[in-house]
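Example is below:
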Amino acid sequence: MIPAILIAIVCAAPAPDLDRLLDAIQAVETGGMADPDRATGDQGRSIGAYQIQRGYWQDAQPYLPRVARGRPYQDCRDKAYAREIVKAYWRRYCRRAL
């Protein structure tokens, strides 16, 4: 039997392939900018490392961990928060991707 703590640690750790995928998305979306958090595209409608638009951010809100909910849209310029938005959106629309 696997101890519960080991299961919790393994399940909490992000999959390396997911991290690589998110890094690749960032590189494409920002064109490899030195500071991807400052990226703005689509005539100002997309922001941050993953070029998140307000509708995408809104769709992800109910699927965020509780501690990340309620932050303003502009926080999508923070890469760590933006990653949580992307994963929450995927939890909503394509769970199998995670």
